[in-house]
Amino acid sequence: MAKELETGNRLVFAYYVTGHGFGHATRCVEVVHHLILSGHDVHVVTGAPDFVFTSQIQSPRLFLRKLVIDCGVVQADALTVDRLASLEKYSETAVVPRDSILATEVKWLKSIKADLVVSDVVPVACRAAADAGIRAVCVTNFSWDFIYAEYVMVAGYHHRSIVWQIAEDYSHCQFLIRLPGFCPMPAFRDVVDVPLVVRKPRKSRKEVRDELGIKDNEKAMVLNFGGQSLGWNLKEEYLPPGWICLVCGAHDNHQELPRNFKKLAKDVYTPDVMAASDCMLGKIGYGTCSEALAYKLPCVFVRRDYFNEEPFLRNMLEYHEGGVEMIRRDLLVGHWRPYLEIATTLKPSYEGGVNGGEVAAKILQDAAHGKNYKSDEDSGARRLCDAIVLGFQLQRASGRDISIPEWYTNAQNELGFRTGSPQSSDAANNNSSFFQNSVCDEFEILHGDVKGLPDTINFLKSLAELRVSHNSEKPYIRERKAAAALFNWEEEIYVARAPGRLDVVGGIADYSGSLVLQMPIREACHVAVQKIQPTKQRLWKHAQARQQAKGQKQTPVLQIVSYGSELSNRGPTFDMDISDFMDGGKPISYEKAKHYFSHDTSQRWGLSDILY
């Protein structure tokens, strides 16, 4: 323990932790730990179980106050967010009793003589601090106004004020301590970036494996969905031979686990288990992502519906070659083996800082002493970019992907890479002749003409780049890797362009001969298609394993890659056996097809690509 501070130098921190999941509480623990090591008192306001804090911090300077004044999101299960229920729950928890909450918190903050309010990332705590005349700082990688922005488009305008109220609450913060993998957060005037906040293992890999009875020649996988209960039955055949699965968060009344699955205690110290394992299977949250990167643990992840933090964390995880995505239907049916085998070939490359807890604690101490942190001269531009993206999201049509403008590259700038999105049309026009010549060098155009269209030239150029990247060691985002493996570059590829249209009257009624009033626009969709004999088709590994599991010979498989998914919450790939589309020698009905595609919401875009 650090040298005891004199009473006059001892600070009092009020640390509010959101009621959503364990990830916020576990990263809070690391910051609080360093504040207490420095001799300060910390009052943590949380709904998380005591063991999350007391298992790591045993100190009379830690005070736990059980209270939830926000609710995060409501999840129907480990993977599904209920958007309307989330807004209604937040309204019930933080909006209806708002006046009472503010009065209570102001009184409490004054009673403990708090020097600084820290929020991760409870909105009303920031306003309570302002009303009490106390400075406030937020520590987070996302804010709830960004997460809820999409939900109001589903719930209707009667919940729209929630987003504005949250943003107004956050604006009372002095500044934001921003964690890696961050989302747009325009409500904060000033920002200070810190390294990853991660907990450190307490035991060696060998100690943990010996305690759990894992043999040296066995591989261990952690199954962790962040405190959410697992609602599916686990079977022995889900794992490859020689594998052991360590299950976090299993219910006490859960099924008796197969012999190659081990149930972990509720208060297990997850960093020890992760450091002793060979890969992890779970959802993407800050705690999972940051600690997997820190311990260089490959992560097999499954997307959650409608949690807009994920794309930014996923970018960070995949850029450092630490993640592989599992399709939800494969998770539920136990088709895990090909993903685990791929994960063991990954070599996570994160070499950045992992002392964010210590750095954040030092900044908080300085802030409590009155130090002001100001962003650089680009702060205004950053806030404008964040605000435009947030406003764009609020106005977009319900049910569509989060199409974040290509110039918004928070996650990419942080990691020092770009997504490779097509350049603007003006730039393309200036270079169209050069690109057209270079494309002709890469491909022999057998039929048709690019007609000087810059977007078509760019699309062909992107295909040429895929041809190069197929055999390259250079890291590429996952959708480009998947696309590069699709084609046989010595065979014909068909490229088509379909312009968008301005729909004034008629919609799709023109298909039945009705009169319409529409106009083509410059924006267009491009598709590259290739038909390949099954024996020559390059199948993704999980598709190969699926056919082997069915005991069938190699049959035709439809494989699709959709660009632009890296900053949206949808899967960039889709695949299915063509035989699944047939029933008794005839195509399945539209209703059956719709049901087939509804299994995994992150792949529903495949429905429109195939059926329309």
From TrEMBL:
Record keywords, A-Z: ATP-binding, Nucleotide-binding
Coiled-coil intervals, chain numbering: none
Gene Ontology BP term (one): carbohydrate metabolic process
InterPro entries for this protein: GalKase_N, GHMP_kinase_L-arabinokinase, Ribosomal_Su5_D2-typ_SF, Ribsml_uS5_D2-typ_fold_subgr
Residue ranges constituting the Galactokinase N-terminal domain according to the UniProt record: 487-531
Secretion signal span: none
An MF annotation (GO) of this entry: ATP binding
SUPFAM superfamilies associated with the record: Ribosomal protein S5 domain 2-like, UDP-Glycosyltransferase/glycogen phosphorylase
Protein name as catalogued: Galactokinase N-terminal domain-containing protein
